[in-house]
């Protein structure tokens, strides 16, 4: 029961923080949104700031951890990993859109980016963890690319780390740009990554 209540509280609080920002949300708003008493809310978090940090860690830091987002094994090809990666991104994005604002994909995307920027300014430790996630993402791509070089799937004269960064930049860059319109275009992300792949694959 406690786990269920915690999840219910986190979902309600994250939705409010993402759409109204931290300063625009009151404890009364949270109580009303999750249908819990103030005592129950404070059972899980000592303060509103503490709750904000908890839900950000849960929905942004843990969700964007590449280990939680993309199924990985050393035997998959780079082409297969692109498909898995984009599929993981799509699933994660849909879950967040449904959580924040299922009626407006573009509003949800903008709210997510705005919340992330706010978090980075408020919590240096969470910003650091977010950047660790990004670096782990790059490292995962580098591992796949190195394995693909060994299998003669792609050219062996490439700068592996540079190429890994290009794949990660494709995701983070398009996510930010597309948040200004209708949210991340997953098909465009896939095509962009296929283009990068075609530039380095062996003929």
Number of separate strands: 0
Residue share in helix: over 70%
- The first-to-last residue Cα distance is 57 Å
Assign the structural class, choosing from mainly alpha, mainly beta, alpha/beta, alpha+beta, or little secondary structure.
mainly alpha
CATH topology of the largest domain: Tetracycline Repressor, domain 2
Order of helices and strands: HHHHHHHHHH
Percentage of residues in strands: under 5%
The tally of helices reads 10
Instruction: List segments where confidence is low: pLDDT < 50 over at least 5 consecutive residues.
Output: none
CATH class of the largest domain: Mainly Alpha
Overview of this protein structure:
This protein has 203 residues and is mostly helical. It has two domains: 2-56, Homeodomain-like (Arc Repressor Mutant, subunit A); 62-200, Tetracycline Repressor, domain 2, CATH 1.10.357. It is 76% helix and 0% strand. The chain has ten helices and no strands. The chain starts with a helix and ends with a helix.
Question: How is this fold's topology laid out?
Answer:
Elements: H1 2-20, H2 27-34, H3 38-44, H4 48-61, H5 66-69, H6 78-100, H7 105-122, H8 124-150, H9 160-178, H10 186-200
Helix pairs in contact: 1-2, 1-4, 1-7, 4-8, 6-7, 6-10, 7-8, 8-9, 9-10
């Amino acid at each position: 029961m406690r786990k269920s209540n915690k999840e219910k509280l986190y979902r309600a609080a994250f939705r409010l923080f993402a759409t109204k920002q931290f300063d625009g949300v009151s404890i009364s708003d949270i109580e009303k949104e999750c249908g819990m008493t103030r005592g129950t809310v404070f059972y899980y978090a000592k303060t509103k700031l503490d709750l904000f940090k908890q839900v950000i860690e849960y929905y942004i830091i843990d969700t964007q951890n590449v280990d939680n987002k993309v199924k990985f094994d050393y035997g998959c090809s780079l082409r297969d990993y692109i498909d898995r990666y984009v599929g993981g991104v799509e699933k994660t994005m849909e879950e967040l859109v449904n959580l924040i604002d299922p009626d407006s994909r573009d509003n949800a995307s903008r709210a997510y980016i705005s919340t992330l920027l706010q978090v980075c300014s408020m919590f240096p430790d969470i910003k650091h963890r977010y950047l660790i996630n990004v670096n782990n993402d790059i490292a995962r791509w580098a591992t796949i690319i190195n394995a693909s070089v060994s299998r003669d799937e792609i050219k062996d004269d490439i700068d592996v780390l540079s190429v890994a960064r290009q794949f990660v930049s494709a995701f983070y860059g398009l996510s930010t740009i597309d948040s200004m319109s209708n949210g991340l275009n997953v098909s465009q992300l896939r095509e962009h990554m296929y283009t990068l792949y075609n530039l380095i694959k062996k003929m």
